[in-house]
Structure formats: structure tokens, C-alpha cells
Amino acid sequence: FPVFQEGHRQDVETVWKYLENYYNLGNDTEVKNLSGKELMAEKLKEMQQTFGLKVTGKSDPETLRVMSNPRCGVSDVTP
Amino acid sequence: EAINSNNPRWTKTHLTYSILNYTPLLPRAVVDQSIAKAFRVWSDVTPLTFSRVFDEEGDIVLSFYRGDHGDNNPFDGPLYRLAHAFQPGPGIGGDVHFDLDERWTDTSENFNLFYVTAHELGHSLGLTHSNDIGALMFPSYTWYVDDFVLNQEDINRIQALYGPSPNPIQPTGATTPRLCDSPLSFDAITTFRGEVIFFKGRFYIRVSRAMPEPELNLIGILWPALPGKLDAVYEVSMADKAYFFKGNRVWAVREQSVQEGFPTDIYSYFGFPSSVTHIDAAVCEEETGKTYFFVDDKYWRYDEYNKTMDSGYPKLIADDFPRVGNKVDAVFQNKGYFYFFHQSTQYRFNLQTRMVDAIRHSNTWFNC
Fold it and tell me: Which of B63, B101, B24, B79 shows the shortest CA–CA distance to B71?
């Protein structure tokens, strides 16, 4: 991770956890030859597409807002 | 169709279910009814049947848990993760777990147990999440209203796994509007604080100069107290208010809140005669404060300043709005024009010349 300001770091941790839970981020880190940052951007794009958001690959405020919505605990990607 | 990897599905069509425990926030009978109703969502559209068992574990076990409950998917207290379910299979397969810490309801208040159960049972039967915001299988909890209708995408996906319902009358579901595929018809259209909002079924389509693409979402996300399938909507911009109509009821809204005293009936509030049972379309002419209500082939005029119906109405639409036709689905004002919509066509009516000067497809506002 780059150096984040306080608050921003918490956002990144929230996003990382969300993508681990619902977009298979942790498992794919080992499979795909990408850095954590690249993989996170790829997964963010996938998430943004699913939710009809602007696909930026970045954790913009709208993406964070959708991530904080109540939801089903089943992941959005298999398995 | 998007289903789980390896296409897990139940190989039998008759499944049993059992309810292990209950939330203390609802009477047991309400939980039982909510769960039974959720099973009917899926049995109505497939050959699957479900029956409850009491003395043994069902194929699908439904239960409420708090926090870590030993399945590697801990719950997290109120909000956020509401529930989860396991894909078809023996043992834990098909089971549904609810977070005991949520406030479960049988109303439109968060979180409606029937709605969440119906979603989770989709997973129990083998469906993954959908990216169609109108689908039951969309991952986020969306606003629940009493007139729940399964989305056609959910029907297509479950029928891809289990086949169609044996019912001679095949069920059809609601569809999410596809803005650019072909011209659409609309239930209602209004300006709203400098933007234009189109209404179709449970959805709104918001068009703003600040956004390159229109925003499609559920009406309930913006206005939880409003019903879907509205008849008409208009804005009184000088009062920063909008009126929403369905049948003979009207809701006055400012920002996201329904005003006190609403919904009420159109007879006592506007002075319509009892023969008027609905409003097809409405628009307030900003410059004059006169609101036009279109009902079948006639229109009424209402004065927003005096709060009274103008005398001499109703009149025939065809007489005063030539070439617009005899029926209006939706209308709104943009600058010096009224834009009338009927089926998939829009008519631009010049308020100066009182003539239609352009006829186009209805979806020209979506930057297709």
C-alpha cells in the first residue's frame, strides 16, 4: 500500500475486506501474478460493474457508499 | 444463464424444509408465514414443491445465529451482513442462516424477512447474485414494497436450472427498463430540482446535466414511502414541491420526504369530481403557475397560487393541444416547451405558438 492519511487507510482496509469477502480477493492474490494494488483495482472494477457504478477501479465515495449498504453474505463471484 | 460453478442443483423436485429457531422480534406465526411465502416465490415459477417438516431436518434448514456460528462466515452485529445461504447439497447444503442481530420485520421497514428469505432461497436452489438492480438476486438489500413481483431475469435463471412451471399459465416477471434498446413508454415524468426524472414501474431514470449517463434505480431508494407504478408526477418548482399520483391518491413530496397530511385523495385536495379515478399525466407551467391534469381524452387546469380548479374545464386535449393525440402517458416542461409522451413517442409542444413542432422517439433524453 502507498502511504495513506488517517481515515483513508481505514477506507482501504474496508475495501480490501469487502473485496476479500465478496470478490475472492485473498485467494486470487496467490493465483494471479498481480500486485495487491493492481488486483484490488481489478476487483473494484468488477464490483463497480455489478452495482452499475462508474467503473474507475478506485474506491471513490459512491463505491464506498454502496459497500456500506446492508447485503447478502454470499459472495458475488464463485466459488 | 449465470449460475454457480458446476451448476449445483437439486436433483429432486420435492424438497423439505425445517425452521430451527426464531427471531424474538417477530411472532413465530409471522416468521412461518414469511418463510412459506418466500418458498412460494420459487415454486410458482418452477416444478419445485416445498413442504415443511417438524420432526426431522429438512433438505433446507433455516435458522437464526449471532456472530460466529461455526460455518466460517460469521455475522457482524446489526446491519451490513444480513444473511447467507449454501448452494444445493447434503448436510449444510441449501441451508439459510439469518443474522439474529438484525431487526427483522414483516413490513417495509428494514429488514423484511420474507424478502431476504426469498433472496437466500435463490442461493439454496443454486443461483448466484445478479447484477440487475431490479432482480431479487441483486446482492444489496433493496427497498421492499408489498406488491413484490419476481423479476423476469430471476425467472429465466431459475427455469434454466429446473425448467418451467407446470402451470398452464406461465408466470411472467417484472423487467428492468433497458434505456437504449428500443423506445420506452413511461408511467410519468417530471422535472425535479433542475433535473428530469422518468418513472417506469418500480424504477426511476434520472437525467441531469451533471451526469453523462442517466441513473437508473428503484423509486424506493429515493422515496421509500411512495408506491411503484405511478400514474403521474409534477413539480411545482416555486414551492420546491412535487406531487405524485397513483389512482385517486396524491403524495406531496419535498426533497425525500412526504409532506404531513399525505397521501390524501385528489377530490378533497384538488377538487376533482368523483368520476375521475386516476390522473394520466400532469405538468405545472412554471411561468403561469397553472397545472394541467390529463385524464383520458380531457384535461383540467388548476391554479397553484389560488389552490383552486379553473372553471370551464375539463376540455378536450385534441382541441387545445393539436397533434398530441387523445391520450397522454406523461408530460413535463423544459424551457418553453411541454414534452408529451404517449407509448414510445414524444411530442414537443411549443408554449408560445401552441403547436407541436417536433415528434421523436421517447428515449432521446438518455444520451443513447
Answer: B63
Report the catalytic residues of B: 120
**CA B347 vs CA A16, A23, B198, B266, B298: distances in Å:** 50, 46, 16, 27, 17
| CA distance linking residue B20 with residue B28, whole number of Å | 12
First to last CA, chain B: 26
Q: Count H helices, E strands: chain B?
A: 6, 23
Whether residue A25 contacts residue A37, with contact meaning beta carbons closer than 8 Å, is answered with no
Strand A71-72: give its sheet, edge to edge: A71-72, B81-85, B96-99, B60-65, B14-19, B49-52
ipTM for the whole predicted complex goes beyond 0.90: no
Angle, to 10 degrees, between the axis of helix A36-50 and the axis of helix A8-23?
70
Q: What is the pLDDT of residues B127-185, one digit of tens each?
A: 999 999 999 999 999 877 777 889 999 999 999 999 999 988 888 888 899 998 888 99
| Contact status of A51 with chain B (Cβ, < 8 Å) | yes
Interchain pair A22, B139: CB under 8 A: yes
How far from the centroid of its chain's Cα atoms is residue A12's Cα? 8
N- to C-terminal Cα separation, chain A: 27
Which of B66, B104, B121, B131 should we substitute to test contact with A (largest number of A Cβ atoms within 10 Å)? B131
Query: B interface toward A at CB cutoff 8 Å?
Result: 4-5, 73, 75, 79-85, 110-111, 116, 119-120, 123, 128-129, 131, 133, 139-141, 216
A56 in reach of chain B (CB within 8 A): no
